[in-house]
Amino acid sequence: MARAASELGRLDLLVNAASEGFAPKNALELTEADWDLAFGATAKGSFFVTQAAAPHLRESQGTVVMIEDVAAYQPWPSFAAHCAAKSAQAMLTRVFARALAPEVRVCGVAPGPVAVDPEQEERRAAETLLGRVGSPEDVAEAVVYLAGAGFVTGTSLVVDGGRLLQSVAG
Prior knowledge:
single chain, alpha/beta, Rossmann fold, 5 helices, 45% helix
């Protein structure tokens, strides 16, 4: 973080988008390695990268955006480790919002189905109220909005085409 802030002149925005372990597996068959994989990149990575960036973001009155997932808000038994890790990351959004305020705002973006495999697109589109999957641009627009929304902190913007309003799957 120090190197990035030095080379860029300052650090205004941190986007935590790392995630691992998004593979279907019965919850009763998960291994400790599966669990560690999901939590390592998603929760642990987001925590320590944000912690390292905090002094630089305080200096610039910057923003952190966590790329969460609607999985943080729905119990998907076939993706238990991913759901739990994303739920932990969503909590970190709120924890860091309190810990870094008032100098730094911390928000989350919780995407639904975005940029899915072509053979899954029709099925995944049917999971949303808008009848389509999202695009990377849909998520990027939410990040840009939050980066400039000076009176928004500690909350998550769901970008899922109405996925959370549909029945629970997984």
